[in-house]
Amino acid sequence: MKFVDELPPEAPRHHGHDWGPCLAKLRAHPGQWAHLEPGKDDVPNFTKRGAYALAGRIREGRTSAFAPAGTYDASVRGGELYACYVDTEAGER
Fold it and tell me: Rounded to a whole number, what is the distance in angstroms from the first to the last CA of the chain?
């Protein structure tokens, strides 16, 4: 254990990933599932375990880029994340 006189400065906070390019690709293919590979094609890095959490956030719109809930769908198969844009006007999934 080491005692310090002052705390080090706080690290900059991560304000989220820019999902814009990924969303544009999904919206260009409504109702079609896309495999979201971590760290590739404008997709952030995430673990296989994180894929399940991210899928829930996408489905429920808890990641602001995917809001409101039901705009996008997501599922995990074999630890791999898949997502699709739900064309709300056509009612496709």
Answer: 55
- How many Cβ atoms are within 10 Å of 48's Cβ, its own excluded? 12
* 81 within a domain of the structure (yes/no): yes
41 assigned to some structural domain? yes
Q: What is the helix (H) or strand (E) element at residue 84, kind and residue range? A: strand 80-85
Structure tokens at 68: 């409101």
Give the residue ranges of DSSP H helices in the chain.
Answer: 20-27, 48-60
26 domain-assigned: yes
Is the link from the previous residue into 68 a cis peptide, with omega within 30 of 0?
Answer: yes
The pTM of the whole model exceeds 0.90: no
The pLDDT, as a whole number, for residue 91 is 47
Given a contact cutoff of 8 angstroms between Cβ atoms, the answer to whether 52 and 60 are in contact is: no
Q: What residues make up the domain containing 67?
A: 20-85
**Reduced to 3 states, what is the DSSP secondary structure of residue 13?**
coil
